[in-house]
Design goal:
Blueprint lengths: L83 H5 L9 H32 L3 H44 L1
């Protein structure tokens, strides 16, 4: 198979031409967009309105902003959700254990990070007493090392939680239909 830009292939049109059905027209392959009555598309802003994006009429679509009256709320949490031990024996994996353990993992990770930074500061003080500039470097860098490690752990755990929230929202979307 050859590439469409090779010689001998007819050029592809970049969009609907005059008189051709395009996206949003009733003759388009998928019909008009949802929540829009079939008919000719609106050619411009109504009389008396400007040309900026804020003055364009709102046409809700599958990827546009949600209607303010309808709004979107996150799915409700299951009040009868299982605890950590109940979720361990959930053979359908409907209740996730990792999302419940992230708080504990974060709190437990703060302990060794803090101990390491305190040890760095302690060794820095000890080396500083001996007249070494390396001690000053350790003493000054220990809070930055602590901050960097806490931010790294927090970022990783937030990524994990984000994955579980996306899964939860997708499940709510699937169950809505």
């Amino acid at each position: 198979m050859t590439h469409p830009s090779d010689p001998g292939h007819p050029p592809h049109s970049q969009g609907p031409g005059p008189g051709q059905p395009g996206a949003g027209h009733p003759g388009a392959p998928y019909g008009p967009p949802p929540n829009q009555p079939p008919g000719p598309p609106q050619q411009g802003p109504p009389q008396g309105q400007g040309q900026g994006p804020a003055s364009r009429p709102y046409a809700p679509g599958p990827y546009g902003p949600q209607d303010q009256a309808q709004g979107w709320t996150p799915p409700p949490r299951d009040p009868s959700s299982k605890g950590v031990f109940g979720a361990l024996f959930d053979m359908n994996f409907d209740h996730m254990v990792t999302a419940k353990l992230v708080k504990i993992v974060y709190a437990l990770s703060l302990v060794p990070i803090t101990v390491l930074s305190l040890l760095m500061a302690g060794y820095g003080l000890d080396w500083l007493d001996q007249g070494s500039t390396f001690g000053l470097l350790l003493l000054v860098s220990s809070p930055f090392v602590w901050l960097f490690q806490v931010l790294t752990v927090r970022t990783i755990l937030e990524f994990v939680i984000n994955q579980f929230k996306m899964s939860e929202y997708l499940r709510a979307i699937k169950d809505k239909d």
